[in-house]
Design brief:
alpha/beta; 2 domains; binds 1,4-dihydronicotinamide adenine dinucleotide; binds (2S)-3,4-dihydro-2H-pyrrole-2-carboxylic acid; proline biosynthesis
Length: 257
Amino acid sequence: MASLTPILLLGAGRMGGALISGWRSAGTFKDADLMVRDPHPGPEAAVLAQPDDAGLAQAKTVLLAVKPQLWRAAAAIAPHLAPDAVIVSIAAGVGLNDIAQAFGGRRVARVMPNTAVAINQGVASLYAPDPEARARAEAMFAPVAKVVPLESEDLMHAATAVAGSGPAYLYAFVEALAAAGLEAGLTAEAASDMARSMVIGSAALMARSDEDPAELRRQVTSPGGTTQAALEVLTPPLGPLMTDAVAAAVRRSRELG
Ligand SMILES: NC(=O)C1=CN([C@@H]2O[C@H](COP(=O)(O)OP(=O)(O)OC[C@H]3O[C@@H](n4cnc5c(N)ncnc54)[C@H](O)[C@@H]3O)[C@@H](O)[C@H]2O)C=CC1
Ligand SMILES: O=C(O)[C@@H]1CCC=N1
């Protein structure tokens, strides 16, 4: 693999900022290895170089991290990039061939990360038929995420729906559980503390356990007990609801391209 730095973050908002934080804490890149092009960069990017158009030619790798609706405007920098610059896109739904075309035929990798890259515990699905683009994307994401290679680009929609959007489903679950605790008589503070701490502890337990989630669930569920009573309410709708939710995110990912 050729040198992948300096890396230009084309867009440094929430996801670009999460990556900068993750790279900093993992020691993956020095700040001097990173540059930013963003009219309103987030706080994580504040100390990074913001090259003028001539300076863009220094970038060896470009991380495309703007909203999918804005990516074509962002790609207007293409004529200023070095001919051998490689594009690594995290934009949901935007196809590899479209990106390659907009960036003058440069090599492209697609990655779908999630915000937990900020603490080096993300998951990042990767699709890149070009070996050099794949190697660079792996070098960027492996230090901060579990990298999951995809065999076909079409699977990127499902990866987005499960792992990219997934953190929001979990946070929505915590919100709903805390609201239900309040309804059941707890104070707002106690309900929130319980819901948050329960998810954090249970996720940590899953991380350390060799058991799959179904077995961990069984370990909590006493026959005829409270958990079984709650799961009998929750589980029948949860399966089909989750299937519908993931299908809705897949549909939206297809539309965004
Ligand atoms: N937020 C998340 O959890 C995830 C987001 N993504 C993808 O990451 C991309 C960015 O999402 P967020 O960081 O959430 O959005 P964001 O809105 O927080 O950040 C986007 C940044 O792009 C900048 N920008 C807008 N136009 C630009 C241009 N022409 N040139 C350069 N920069 C420009 C904005 O100022 C902003 O700072 C999206 O394509 C999204 O699909 C992927 C995985 C997870
Ligand atoms: O909501 C979105 O469209 C982006 C993609 C995955 C997470 N956030």
